[in-house]
Amino acid sequence: MLPLTDHEELYYRLALTFVPGIGARMGRALLERYGSAAAIFKTPLKDLKNAEGIGEIRVKGFKDPVVLQRAEQETEYVVKNDVKVLSITDQYPKRLSNCADAPIVLFYNGNADLEAAKVVAVVGTRKNTDYGQKLCEELIEGLQGLEGLLVVSGLALGIDAIAHKKCVQAGIPTVGVLGHGLDRIYPHTHKSLAAQMVDHGGILAEFPSETLPDRNNFPMRNRIVAGMSDVTVVVESHTTGGALITASMAAGYNREVAAFPGRVNDSRSAGCNELIRTNGAAMITKASDLIEMMNWDKDKKPRAVQQQLFLNLSVDEQKIVDLLQTKDNVHADELYHHSGLPNSMLAATLLQLEMQGVIKSLPGKYYRIY
After folding, report:
1. What's the DSSP call for residue 4?
2. Which residues pair with 120 in a beta bridge?
3. Which domains does the chain have, with CATH numbers?
4. Is 188 helix (H, G, I), strand (E, B) or coil?
5. Phi, then psi, of 180 in degrees rounded to 5
């Protein structure tokens, strides 16, 4: 989290989000190029306009008094309300940071570990049936024994709220991703639930305060739900709607997708059935199916590789094994970053280690010692 005492950098990072035409990708590229948001805004406009394809029109936004005034207001809001501001270049959910369209800042109220070992998104229709409610509640109950579990959803009516409520009751950390600013709760009927979640999880948004729950915000919200998670579980869904958008985004991020089947003539299960039929999701019927699918059997601990297996490892293979021994599992992007190996060489090395039975590949491009 960006220290709130560093008001100047906080101010400029927020200002960057208000500059018209500077989206997630360009904002991230600028931060990586200049090292800080303050450095971006202090760069002469004549130099800045040639950076990252900004151009003559966009560059004017960096001196726009409306942009700077809005940033000042938001800085005051987050400091006054003790809102955590997570920046893409600082402490930020790593799973989400691996997504190219991840927002450059997130606003967060809560205490849940966004880097939990096992993050499950539970999504579905706003107009659930009793069948869907039962499936959702039994899923949460079945996951209760997992260590390092975090459940993510969108705090919407229906399946989202059922999942959050059941997590609060079961003592499982749960985070709701909002389609508006943290200064309001939509729907209003979930205000009490959201307050409980802040105490036992959290609420998260990419949108600043005063952002209304406009319809166009919710598909954007869905990408964060998908990007934060190892697996997205669709409980009940029509053939169109937010749950299937989230599932599609999860697949696009190379994350796992699972769905509960339903009756063939029930429109609220039609989306799940279609996902399963087209191999867009793995079929599950209970929590243990998901645990098995994700290799999350809580009774099995990754065992250390016997030292003699290392004797014939190449330098590159040993480097990967050393990295994997530091954690229970490591994402391929993190291995690429820390190993210094080119992508093609890394892929070949990982494959070779798998064939030797030294490492095991997990869903979502994660690896661990076998």
Report:
1. T
2. 151, 231
3. 7-91 (1.10.150), 110-293 (3.40.50.450), 307-369 (1.10.10.10)
4. helix
5. -165, -175
Whether 226 and 246 have beta carbons less than 8 Å apart is answered as yes
Q: Which residues pair with 203 in a beta bridge?
A: 109, 176
Q: 38 by DSSP, 3-state: which? A: helix
Amino acid, res. 40 = I
Mean residue pLDDT of the chain comes to: 90
Rounded to whole angstroms, the Cα distance separating 122 from 154 reads 9
Asked whether residue 276 carries a pLDDT value surpassing 90, the answer given is: yes
Quick one: which of 119, 108, 177 has its CA closest to 148?
Answer: 119
**Of residues 230, 242, 96, the one with CA closest to residue 157:** 242
Residue 146 token pair: 């997992």
| Stronger pLDDT, 91 or 257, i.e. the higher one | 257
Q: Give the pLDDT confidence of 248-269 residue by residue, as tens digits.
A: 999 999 899 999 999 999 999 9
Give yes or no for residue 273 having a pLDDT over 60.
Answer: yes
pLDDT at 298: 52
